[in-house]
Each structure stands twice: as structure tokens, then as C-alpha cells.
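quick one, 307 residues, struct below
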Amino acid sequence: MVNNENPKYNGAVFFVDNVEKSKKFYTDILGQEIEMDFGRCVGFIGGFSIWDRSYAHKMMGLKEENASKNKKDAELYFEGEDLDSLFAKLKSKKIIFVHDIIEQPWGQRCFRIYDPDNHIIEFAEPMTVVIERLYEEGLTHNQIVKKSLMPVEIVLDVIGKIDSVKNDKFTEDLIAPCGMNCRICIGYFGYTMSGKKRKMKCIGCKPRDKSCAFLKKYCKKLTKKEIEYCYECSDFPCSHLEKIDKLYRERYNMSMIKNLKEIKKKGINKFLNEQKAKYRCQECGGVLCVHNGKCYSCGKEIKMILK
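---
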């Protein structure tokens, strides 16, 4: 929520005594489909959720005697990106707060108020914002999945979009052990070889906790993270690396083995500077894709030449 934009209604939450019993009612009797099931909280397709009442009241800091006086068995749920501004705005009004801004166990920040009839209204940040914040704090995608309870596909998609904006640079983190520069890979741009937009863009081998998408399944040293780059191996270049290198030389005018030799000889920083110059679009300054020579920033395509 930016520039005083009003919060967006996102759905209703019903607090229930028995989640499993209620879940069975909505699925078996009413034929509703579950979108996400977190155990104590279940979200259905269409925008409503059920939440274990005791746990919900505990999260809000409501005491049992307060809960029995007013059942508090439902709430309206709104989302807004600028939670702090909304909180400050509502604090200036004559409104009764259930609680101030808190961070819930899954990382989402929120606050709740009462409406004139004592119904609970929750205002929370979208989970995409939660993922972005956790990523900025240095958590890996696996740690974010564990913390936020969000599906790995959604977490990777959010991280990928962050990196596509932030990492318009050639960084060591995007150089795989095999010598592939993930920054110029079509998967990193978010497209398939046929030109279709991927549902999720790849964020690179190392950022995805994979030491090398091409060779890890063949190499025990990579699996055990005993080496950082393949040139450190006594078998360099192995037959598996030679096979993928041959394919890339013939199809995409790029040699992974050559890249590795350059890194070993000149160092990673000089190699990155050379990659930046070679794959930089002369029209807009964007990055050229090694697989098709296309700049996804301006659409220009050029024929890559191996040097």
C-alpha cells in the first residue's frame, strides 16, 4: 500500500473449534477446494479461510475470559504493503486496537482492530513482502520456505524477481562451478528455449543451493562441496564437462572450459569484467542472453562470436 492507497480486501477468516471437522465440512459437504493447508489454518479457493480459534486468540493476545464474553469467531482480512503508514493513520483515529503491529510465527507482520460492532479486522502485509524481507535479511530460499510456510515455487519466483532487478551485474555468485555464467542463461532471464515465458525464472545454480545444475549429479566432489570450480579437480576437464562444453561451443559460441581457464589465470574479478563487456547490449546497456543473443531489456538480438 503506497501513497495512501486504501488497503485491499483479501478474504474472510472464520475461527473454529476443530479445524479438521470444519475442513471436512467445507470440503466433503460443501465441495470447496483447499488452496493451502497449514494445519491450524486452512485457506480455500475463493478467498476464505478457517483458523483454530484457540491459536488465533493466543496470537492476538486475547484472554479466555475476553473470548467467552464476545465470541470473536471471525475476522475480515485486508492486505497492504505499507503497514506502518496504515497503522499510524488508524492510530490517530478513535479506534480500538486488538493489538499493535506484531510479527506472527511465519514472518508476516500485522495488526488488528475492532469495528463498531466489535468485529475483528486484520491488516497484514502480503506474503510476497514477507519473502522479500526475509531474503533481504540474508535467509536462503530453503530457510524462507521453512519460516514462511509458503510453497517453494512461490518463494523462488519472488526471489527471482528481486534478483532480476538487483543483480543486473555479473557477480561471482552467478558463476557455476562448471564455468557457466548463470547471469547470461536463458533460464535466468525467465524464458524457455522455445521462447515461452517460464512460470518461475531460475535464480542461478549457487543461489538455489545447487553447486552446478549440469554436473553435480555426476561429480561427488561437487556434491560434497569439496571444490568451488571444476578447474580445482585433478580430473579437469572430465568427460562430462567436455560433453556439455562441446555442445555450448557448437550451439552458443561459448566454452565453459575456456571460462574456467580464464578464471584460474586472471582471477574472478577480471573474468567478470570481461563477461560484462562481452554480453552487454550496446543499444540499452542490458544483458545479452548466451542462448539466443537477445537482450530482454530492449529486444535486440545479435550473433555471439566466441573469442
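The mean pLDDT is 83.
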